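Weekly structure sync - notes
Attendees: PM, LS, DV (DV joined late)
Agenda: review two folding runs queued last week.

Item 1: First target. Sequence and structure tokens pasted below for the record.
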Amino acid sequence: MSAAMARAAWREQWPILFPAAMLLAFFVVPFGTMIAVSFFERVPGGFYQPAFTLDNYARFWSLFFGRVLGFSLWLSALVSAICLLVGVPFTRALTRLPRRAQVPWLIALLCVLSLSEVIIGFAWSTLLSRTAGIGNILFALGLLGEPMSFTPGFAAVLLGMVYQAFPYAVLVLYPAFSRLDPSLAEASRTLGATPVRAFFTVVLPALRPALVATFIVVFVFALGCYLLPQLLGRPQHWTLSVLVTDQAIYQSNMPFAAAMAVFLVIASVLLVLLTAAIGRNRAPQ
């Protein structure tokens, strides 16, 4: 290979060096370190020491952690499904508005994204409380016999997580709905389909890749949520992310926390691949 060809090949490759270095520094190295720590031994009263033991992973084969993992996956899937059910008609209605009318809605969604999980958690905790919340409003309207609190509870956890994840769902769906050819639905209605039937038989199948991507994004986001279950739920509503934080910070058991984190990453990656494969296999030909 001549020197000119080598320089040309180098110029083609160097733009990817920076993102590759960032990926190596901020994902590969930390994740590799976490995997290594997951095989270490905990030192009682101290931190941990290098070793190779599978005891941290063996603790997963218990009913307690199986229940927590199943609840975490089920809660994340439920949050993703609700965000899709609400986000699809909302985004379709939003994209059919004039461009100037869309801007305030998009700004409002971005404002929600600017709020931290702490603010969202305490805000919903106040709104759902007995003394200063929605219970008092329903009591004043005569819908409740007495003011009551809706937190802590599963409904409060679900509401808080859907509220936090909903803007992500809309922002992923928005480009797909904006680029959707309106003649598809018009053609189906010309052939006799009702608007509802055209939406379910023409519009949604055309948007299947965006729907799958939205489900995956919200699912992964909800799976990593750990503060809202603590603020709005009871201990039985805690997810695996909460237990990872508890073991790492409060129990000082970093090897077991690392093992749970690795297990959570592997489980989420497998589910994401499965969801993507289902969406690809059912894509319109």
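Item 2: Second target, run right after the first with the same settings.
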Amino acid sequence: MQAVETKYMNPYLAGFLLGLVLLLSIFITGRGLGASGAIKDGIVAIVGTLAPDHAAASPYYGPYLEQSAGHPLKSWLVFELIGVVIGAFLSGLISDRLAFRSEGGPRIQTRMRWIFAILGGALFGIGAQFARGCTSGAALSGMAVLSSAGFITMMAIFGTGYMVAYFFRRLWI
């Protein structure tokens, strides 16, 4: 049997390097990693620009506008998310995997793949807002500082994924 050569990084090495990035983030900035907070900062900036009176009076947007010094897009998380996009682009370019394509199982059409991806992303984003953090913010960063909430969040994310995977398995295999 011949081993198949892949262009992907060893997942154990990638996990180790992610841990180092998280450790450096906490050491340098005093904060862990996060992604959903940048989306929230973007939405707060849009609402604050289009309807400033509404945003200032809103119990959801108002505190974020007050906390952001100058502008919500000057947040650390926005710059982190920009770095993630640039890093993903460079990774694809270096490994010769830079292409626009939709991947999915043989039983799903590209359109349905995108509908499920957008629906799943929206549900995860809403859940991240309820939980006050996403996989990277609440789970990874929480576990890095030995927060019990981080461990519970990670167990809930993977446990729920394991439970619902049975119902959607025919879409992917």
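Discussion on item 2: The mean pLDDT is 85.
Action: LS to circulate a short write-up before next sync.
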